[in-house]
Each structure stands twice: as C-alpha cells, then as structure tokens.
Amino acid sequence: MIIVMDKSATQEQIDNVIDKIKDKGLDASVSKGIEKTVIGAIGDERILDPELLESLPGVQQALHIVKPYKIVAREWHNEDTIVNINGHLLGGENIQIISGPCSVETPSQMAAAAKAVKAAGVRLMRGGAFKPRTSPYSFQGIGFEGLDMFKEAASAQDLPIVTELLDVRHLDTFLEKGVDVIQIGTRNMQNFELLKEVGKVHVPVILKRGLSATISEWLMAAEYIASGGNHNIIFCERGIRTFETSYRNVMDVTAVPVLKRETHLPVIIDPSHAGGKAWMVPSLARAAIAAGADGLLVEMHPTPCEAWCDADQAIDASELKTLMSELTQIASILNRKI
Amino acid sequence: MIIVMDKSATQEQIDNVIDKIKDKGLDASVSKGIEKTVIGAIGDERILDPELLESLPGVQQALHIVKPYKIVAREWHNEDTIVNINGHLLGGENIQIISGPCSVETPSQMAAAAKAVKAAGVRLMRGGAFKPRTSPYSFQGIGFEGLDMFKEAASAQDLPIVTELLDVRHLDTFLEKGVDVIQIGTRNMQNFELLKEVGKVHVPVILKRGLSATISEWLMAAEYIASGGNHNIIFCERGIRTFETSYRNVMDVTAVPVLKRETHLPVIIDPSHAGGKAWMVPSLARAAIAAGADGLLVEMHPTPCEAWCDADQAIDASELKTLMSELTQIASILNRKI
Amino acid sequence: MIIVMDKSATQEQIDNVIDKIKDKGLDASVSKGIEKTVIGAIGDERILDPELLESLPGVQQALHIVKPYKIVAREWHNEDTIVNINGHLLGGENIQIISGPCSVETPSQMAAAAKAVKAAGVRLMRGGAFKPRTSPYSFQGIGFEGLDMFKEAASAQDLPIVTELLDVRHLDTFLEKGVDVIQIGTRNMQNFELLKEVGKVHVPVILKRGLSATISEWLMAAEYIASGGNHNIIFCERGIRTFETSYRNVMDVTAVPVLKRETHLPVIIDPSHAGGKAWMVPSLARAAIAAGADGLLVEMHPTPCEAWCDADQAIDASELKTLMSELTQIASILNRKI
Amino acid sequence: MIIVMDKSATQEQIDNVIDKIKDKGLDASVSKGIEKTVIGAIGDERILDPELLESLPGVQQALHIVKPYKIVAREWHNEDTIVNINGHLLGGENIQIISGPCSVETPSQMAAAAKAVKAAGVRLMRGGAFKPRTSPYSFQGIGFEGLDMFKEAASAQDLPIVTELLDVRHLDTFLEKGVDVIQIGTRNMQNFELLKEVGKVHVPVILKRGLSATISEWLMAAEYIASGGNHNIIFCERGIRTFETSYRNVMDVTAVPVLKRETHLPVIIDPSHAGGKAWMVPSLARAAIAAGADGLLVEMHPTPCEAWCDADQAIDASELKTLMSELTQIASILNRKI
C-alpha cells in the first residue's frame, strides 16, 4: 500500500502513520519527494484498510497496489478456466449460446421453445420460473411448478437448464429439481448471503453484473462465491445504467476484453436485457462474439407477441437460426467454435 | 395509457392495437393528428404492459399516464404520514436525527456511543451487527451477539434501536431481540423476497435507496412493503452513483422535494455514507435539513480513528453536539422541530 | 403533443391549456379517462414548448409525439446517405477505416504513418494539429504548421485527411489548406456557434458524440449543421462517461443499431478513445463493425511508445494490418465491403 | 509520480522505466515490496505523462501525487479569494444572490425584473441575450440588442449585470457594452479557446460546471482562465447528469465542501437549472446556502408563465422575496451575511 502525505504534513504525523503500519505487522519505507512524502507499506497489504489510513491526520491518500481479489484473478491463475455443463464446455476456445424464453408459461410453450432452441443448434436452455419484477403488481413467475415444466421440456431435447435463483431458501429445491446452472440476477449481485450459499455448492453459477456495478465490485462478488469453494463461475454482462434514455441499458462490450485480462473465468453477454428490444439483438449479439465473449444469453420465444413478460426483447425461432449462422462465422474468424 | 403509432402505421396495425386494449377489458379512443395517430386506453391501465404494446407492429411508444405505485402515492393519500417509533414521531413537523456507530464492536464502545448520542439530544440510535461488505475478506460484523450488546447499551439510555437486516432468515430473531426499526440497505433495495417479508410485520422500515435506483423504482420497492400491509416506511437517500470520483457518492438532495411531492411517507438522508468523509458531514447534514428532510442517519463514533469499519466517515461526540445545534436552528426557520 | 393533466385538475385549468394551444394556431382534442384527462394538440407541435405547458397549473406532463429533428431523421428520408470523400464512399454497403496518429509531430513521423496506413489498405488518414487538452500545461498540438506537414505526407500517399477544428476562427484556413473532412470533437458537440459555421460549408463533417450526450441531443447537434445546408455529416461514437473507472469510457455499441434506425446518415466508431488502451482496440474495433458501424477512426502510430500524446491508445503498423484483415472478413459476413 | 510495476515485471522493464524518468530530468527511487515493485519519480512530476508511462512494458499503473492544478489550488494559496463586482464582494463571509430572467425579452420585462430583483434585496442581476439551445429551431436569444436593454434596465436600479458569452468573437463587444460578469456556460466549460480568451481580460468570470465534468476537470478548466492572468473566477455548480429521469439534473451539493477545500476561489450554485422546476427552487436554494455556498444564481421572472424560455424554472417576485428572507437567516447561523 502507498500512503501519500499532505504537503503540509508534520514529522509527527508521518511517524504516526508508520506506527500504524508496523502495528499491523508490516514494514514501512519512507520516500521524501520535493513536494510530498510517500510511505510504502511492505507485506500483505490486504489487511490494511485504506479508509482507516486516510482518516489519520496529515494523510492525503492511501492506495492498494495489489488487487483485492485473488482466487478469480488471472494474476494468480494464468490459464482460461473452462466450465463443464453436463459435458458442454464453456470457455477457452468453446463458445456457448444459451437461449430460451424469459418466463416459463405453459408446457406447450416450453416444448415449442425447447424444440426451436435445439433446432437452431443451441446446446443450453434458459427460462425463468421466479421473476424479479420492479412492481409488486407485475407477474412474478409461476414458481416451482414452472421449474418442473421447464426441466421436462428441456430434458426431452437433452438440453441442460439455466434458471435464476432469487431466494436463498429455494436453493435446495433447485438442486433437487435438477437445475444445471444457477443464475444470480443483476439485483442480487451484491446479495452477499445468496452468494455465500451458492459458494457452498458445485453447480455452475452465472453471475450477472449489477446495474451500476464496477468491474472491481463484480470481481469481488465472484470472489465471495469462489471463496466458499465453488469455482464454476461465469460472468454475464447485461447492460449498465447510464444517462441515456433511448434504450434500456448500455451493453458494456469493453467489459469483455477487460475481464478476460483480469480473470481466468469465462465471460458471456446478455444482449436481450441490455438493449431491451428484439430488433437490437442480432447487432448486439454479433458485437459480443466479435469482442471475444465466451457465450451469450439470448431470449427467444416461439410466439414473442404473446409472451407474458419482456415480450419486446425476445427474438423468434427463425431469427435465432439466422443469428446462430452469423455468430458461427464470426467465431471461426477468431479461431473459436460454437 | 397512451399509444403513439409510427408515422407509417397502417389502419390494420391501428386496429390490432385497439383489439389488444379491448381484449384486456379497457376502452380505446383514437385521435388522428397531422403526422401521427394516438390511441388512448381508457380504464385501469395498470394491467397493460407498455413493453408488450411497444412490441406490436406500427407502435412507436406506449406510455402510462397514471403512476405505477398507489399505496405510497400522495396522489391517493394527501396528508403526511407520521411514523411513531416507541413514542418518538418522525414526519410532519417532527424531525428525528438517528445516530451511532457504523459497527457494533464492544460493550464499552456501545455504552460510550449511547451516552454521547443521548447527550447530544439525539433520540434514536443506529448500529450495525451484520455488515454488507464488498470484499469477502473484510470484517462482516459480529452478528447476533452484537445485536444484544447494542440493545443493552441503547436501552440503558432509553434509545430505540435501528439496525440493518441482510438475510431474510434473520427477521424473526431481529424482532425477538427487540429491534425497533429495520433498515433495508442499498444493495437490498430490490431484494424483493426481503421486501415481501418485512411487509408482513409492523415494525417501521427504513428503505435506503439503491446505488443507482430511480425515484420511481424506489417508490415501487416501498410499494412491495406497503402492499404486504406494513405502511411504516421511511425513505432514506444515501448518495447515488455517478461519474464523479472525488467523493464516494453524490448526495441527491433534489430527491427530498421530489419525494415529498410524490409520497406521503417521510424522507430522511444519510450524509455519512453519501460523502464518505467525516469532514463533509456537517455541510451535507445542514443541506439535507434545509432542503426539507424529515431526519438524518449520522454516523458517530466515540473514537473514530479506532473504528473497525468506515472509520473515515464517522464524526465524534463533540462534532455531533455542534451539528445538532446548527440543525435545530435551521429546522426552526422552516417551522419544524428537532 | 400530449398534455396529461393532474388527477385533481379543474375544468378551468383544462380550459386554460386548451386556450394556450389554440393561441399558437393548433387544435386541441380532449379525452377524459377514468383517472386523468389528456389533451392532444393537433398541428405542427414543434412550435409548442413542453416546459412552458408543464408550468401551467394542473398540468402533470407534456410530451412531444413527433421527433424534434427532421433533416437528419430517417422518418423523412428513408435511404442511407452515402458520403463521398474525394471519391471514397462511406455509408450504405461501404465501410471506411480512418487511421493515423493522435498528434502531428514531425514530417518523418507523418511520412512513416502515411505509408503504414496506406500499406494496411486504409484509404483515409487522421491526425491532429490542434489538440483539446484537459490541462493548460499539456501539449496543445503544433498548429497550422502541423496541418501542412500532415497534408503533404498524406498527399504523397493519395490519402484524404481528417482533422479536428477547435476554433471557429480557423475554419477558412482549414479549407484553404485542403482539409478533406472536418472533425468536431466531443467537447464541442454542443458548441453551437461552431456547428452553425460548419453548416455553411460543404466539406464532410465527423460529429463526435459528447461525453454524456444523449442520442437525441446528438441528433439535434447534427440538425444544427444540416439546417445550415451541409448534409455531409458522419456520426462518430467515441465512448460515453459512466460510473465505471476501470477504463476511460464505455464504448456504446448500442448507439449503432439505434442511430441506423433514427437517421439515414452514416455512423462510425472510435475504439481508440473509447477504451483508452491499445490492447483493447482490436476487440472493440471488431465489435463495432460486427454491430453494423459504417467505419472506424483508429489511432495508429509508427512508434507508439514515443508518441507525444495519448501514447497508450495507438496501435502500431503491424497491428493495424492484422486488424484490417479481421475487419474485412467480418464485413463480408454482413455483405459489406471495406 | 508513483509507478507500480506488474507482479511479473522483469528487471529490464524496471530499468527502462527508470531511464525514461531520468531522461526527463527527474530522479527515481525504487522500492521492492513482496508482491510488486514501486518506482517513485522525484522532481517536478507535472512534466511526466502517466499515460505514456502506462504504455511501457511491465507497468501496471502510474499515478500523479501532486495536483495537476496550481494557481486555483488552496494547497498553494490558503486564504479565501474574494471577488469584487463593482463594489459588491463575493466570497469569504460574503454571500451574493444573483437573480433575473433566463432570457432578455422586452424593455418592460427587464425593467420589471430589475425592480423586483432590487426590491428583494438582491444586488446582482442575471439575464441571457444569447441562448445556447439544444434545438436549432428554438429561440436563440435576441442578441446584442438584448444586451443593451438588459444593461439599461439594470443600471436604472444600480445592479451590475451577469450574462453568458457563447462566441469568442463577441468578447470585445461584451466588454464595450458594460457586461460586469461573464458567464461561461455548461456546454462551453471545455471550450478551451473561449477559456483562453476570457483568461486575458480582467472582468470576473462565472465558470459553470460541465454536465458531466469531474471536480478535477472543472478545476483544470479554471486553471486555463487563471493561467492567462484572470484570477477573478467563480465556480458555479448547476446540476450534473445522472441516470435519474424524474428531474432534469442532480444538484451536486457535495461539490460545495469539496471545492471549498480544494480551491480558494468562491463557489455558487444555480438551483434553477439544476432542478428545472420552480417549485423545487426554494428547497434547493436553502440546501445550497446551508452547505456553505458563496452565492446563488436564481431565475426569476416578473410573469413566469409568459417567459420565452425555461418558463418552468423561474420563480416570481414574491417567491424571491420570501426565499431571500429564509436564506438570510440560514446564512446568519453560519456567521455569514447576504
């Protein structure tokens, strides 16, 4: 850690900072510049709190120089992690598209969706049985019954299922009912109690980015899961909140190269929630794969205009098929396979 | 609801929208302008989903004209709600300052804090036993044992206690241990499962604004609590996330007059988390009360430099006393009392 | 325009709004819903100011239903505009990459850059003689002398030149010295005096998006240029400002499909300024073309580590060549040509 | 400057950084920690560019430890600067309210406004003759003729005038016509050519904050003016752009204590543009003064509903009078005078 003192800091204030550092078992090195004095703390700086040091008299700024995350950091684990989802690989050279409807509605809707997903060459299926909705008066999902419908329809096409966990009390039932990948949604990215619980199981977890979460906070949220023992983590960018009002969110494609550099874990993108309109999805999906993403979460619905939620953002079966063909070609330019 | 059609919309597309509106049991009125056709849906528009309508061919935009929230809206309940916390009133002409340390640490720290809080003329005490922390490696609070310490120290000074609930599984124990006001933190503002549960009890709830939650989302989160039956809700602005990096968050003082217009429920501000530095607190606290806030959450610590968390933002006992005097004078200019 | 009245609006207030609309020569239609009254203004609503109407008693909200921009809107001009830059087409099926150094430094640097740009198959060259810098103490560009150096080096390779205009008083000299495309930078997107002046000439203009400009404001800025008579306008997305601090800006790739829908004018992206680091450029550049952009502005420098400004974001000659090959392949998947 | 090397940096890379620092005439000190090596550059680090250093191989991060601004920094000039506007002091213990209409419209409107401003006890008058408008089709102000009207009306009440300069070519005429304070608007905060020109004259300048300008960029913009020789600079916060859509901007009251710490120059707030609605103005104005601002820019109009621009945000004469009384009382609590 580096502590920069105020221009007017006294020797007594400098000594006080050095004492605090030594109290924690670290060493201190002092370097006097022309305008300011800088103190370096040598040792495992993760135990020093920069805010505490900044509250000491005469301190201008305290900065960590090592990253606050460790298990998820590429700095400590150089090779790409490849997540295995019932035999389907995600990461490294392997790209996976995950598709399906926003909400589970009826058995026939799910059967049609599963068939369309399979027919388009997609290997993993998504669907929501529990829906986090801004309004208490909106449709909240059909619950565990929906999970059964979903599993049955997907299994008939041999597709592993991805679904969102909202409530820590549901985790055991999710596992019993055969959920293959647990999704942690945007609003729960910093629901630390939920993160701790999914850290204790071994099923892969898709961790969506919070609406205004920084890359560093997102990596720390993954570190919560990883530190519990579950290293099967997939980051999912799904649009961030900005000042722009012409579209729902801004898909942050820069997060892809940055995360790939910071972490060894795979990174996927959800272009459907990012843009919020079906007509934007092909453009955003292509951009995501061209940027180097390891996969996508794409909403599709057999009959989008009749969907019970987020109707506006689901593409239909034929659009999914065309998209898969474009994405496969882009992947091959990058020496990857879908 | 108002539906604006594209300039190039066909009569068939217009008829299709009208059919969808009538299917839901509402009436439709059509108004043809020079450039565009506008359709109005007449009836209880809350059952119409603007996103669904926008996905229909030929529709440019669909807009709600009634507010999506109802119980919390001033439109439907004109007088100020006054929340009663063990006999201390908050709302209307009554301003309450709530103060105490960020974290519960030791019995002697809590006893000293409670005495200082009382001595400054403050009537309600805050303290955290469970702490939501960005890093899994940071101090996470001392848990239920801390809650007991806190209740004991506060009761000795006859101060009701305010503390944060992180985990839905802790609610019963919180009530058993005598928590007087439950705080829902920033990261949980849209943890809908937690909101539903606190909606079922009757203890007052402080609902902090999410880091990048809009006023409308915040009101809807309160509507989750209210629709469960608990109308003792206090909004707490605590700084929003913006592009600015010189301070932790931007305290959104404009939220005060806007919320006071939109809702009958009380609105308080947390200047300590907003700014993130103790030296900013007096300035921000005065601004909050001058803007019309119904109260404050202010961090104080008997010995700030030794605090276990967020040291940098706690003021000390003497600063709290000075601040209380300034705030009391500002309140009286506005014909209110602290 | 649609005016939504408050639930409690009186008949007198409704009549007053109708009078104001009629005063402006428009017609009014009134539609009484169950909860609220809505008034429609029929005629050329561009002359009504929503803010003025919202200041009238009893008005909840006033909304334009026609777009505020007209010349640049696809609504009024359906085919893609193709900008012709000395015989090189940009727009429609034609993609153009524009490359070169951030700053003009020396004749030999510019000669080397021009050769590398040409060798990579790029047809247009960029370079800055006047630099807008955050600090008055930073290098501000070498001025008109640099413009001469740039023009000479580029002409030797038969490359039209693109350069930024900072000062309205420089416009004539820019044209005399043979600038082929004028760039209006981020900080000047709403320098309306500058926009009005470039609207009077006929040289193509690249209009960069303001750091936090909405799509609508950006289109209106282009309308300033277009309403002066210059319709050779190219939009350039270059990263927006958000809460994220891990990278300089967030490249807003969603702006591409959205602008392509709203305007007939071409849209390019500057991945170098967006990310701020050379290692991000290939990933972001591929994403931009895959999303449907009509071109790119890419910084390259013959010897990046010796660059006088923005060193960190320039790729070198060999990286440019590799990138051009990838982009050409992606373009062909989309049936376009580079 | 501090340069933090990557964990995997080689000795050769470290030596290369040291060479670059020495090339610039500074000294280097190396400090090897357990995980990383840190290099300090000793001397006048303002000549080192952190981005250049970060582009060198093996460098993780380069950080300035001295502030990039100097003339405007309190670090180098501890006492408050008091700006003298024709005998009226602004800064130190002196608070000034500046009021008047958004736009100059007619001689009678300006005469009525000047009388109302004077009657409320306000000592400085504002008004716009040239208006920066988002749309080229909106009213752009009545120009120099309006300036004459404004000066005449204000002089009759002995009020110095404050008005916005949009075009560098207008500066001389502004001075000839007796403009007492030049306002640089939000959209021109980084119009560096304009800043350089107002830096050459001696009339006080109100520098409004850019819509999404950081505190540091704002201070650097002031440094542009100051480095030209004009030190009569007044900062004006006027609301920043965020994700919130319920109000026009977010008034950043935290900027007040932060700027007062960073700079010796005065800081005022414009609550009218910040909120965008007249009914918010009293609340925001009180908050600004309570936070420690040195003054306000408040829009007032003799007949707001007839205003030609920004009607919705102007208060009327009687509201201004009431507000002045509240503000005077708040100022006296802080031992200041209005």
Descriptive notes:
- The structure is a homotetramer of 338-residue chains.
- Chain A is α/β, with parallel strands linked by helices.
- The first copy, chain A, has 2 domains: 2-63, Phospho-2-dehydro-3-deoxyheptonate aldolase, domain 1 (Alpha-Beta Plaits, 2-Layer Sandwich), CATH 3.30.70.1140; 74-333, Aldolase class I (TIM Barrel, Alpha-Beta Barrel).
- In chain A, 33% of the residues lie in helices and 18% in strands.
- In chain A, the strands form 3 sheets. In chain A, strands 13-12-11-10-9-8-7-14 form an 8-stranded parallel sheet.
- At the C-D interface, helix 2, helix 6 and helix 7 of C face helix 2, helix 6 and helix 7 of D.
Structure summary:
The structure is a homotetramer of 338-residue chains. With 338 residues, chain A is of the alpha/beta class.
Detail the topology: elements first, then pairings.
4 copies of one chain form a homotetramer.
Chain A: E1 2-5, H1 11-23, E2 27-32, E3 37-42, H2 50-54, E4 59-63, E5 83-85, E6 88-90, E7 96-100, H3 107-119, E8 124-126, H4 144-156, E9 161-164, H5 171-176, E10 181-184, H6 192-198, E11 205-208, H7 215-227, E12 233-237, H8 255-262, E13 267-269, H9 271-275, H10 281-291, E14 295-299, H11 317-333
Parallel strand pairs in A: 7-8, 7-14, 8-9, 9-10, 10-11, 11-12, 12-13
Antiparallel strand pairs in A: 1-3, 1-4, 2-3, 5-6
Helix pairs in contact in A: 3-4, 3-11, 6-7, 10-11
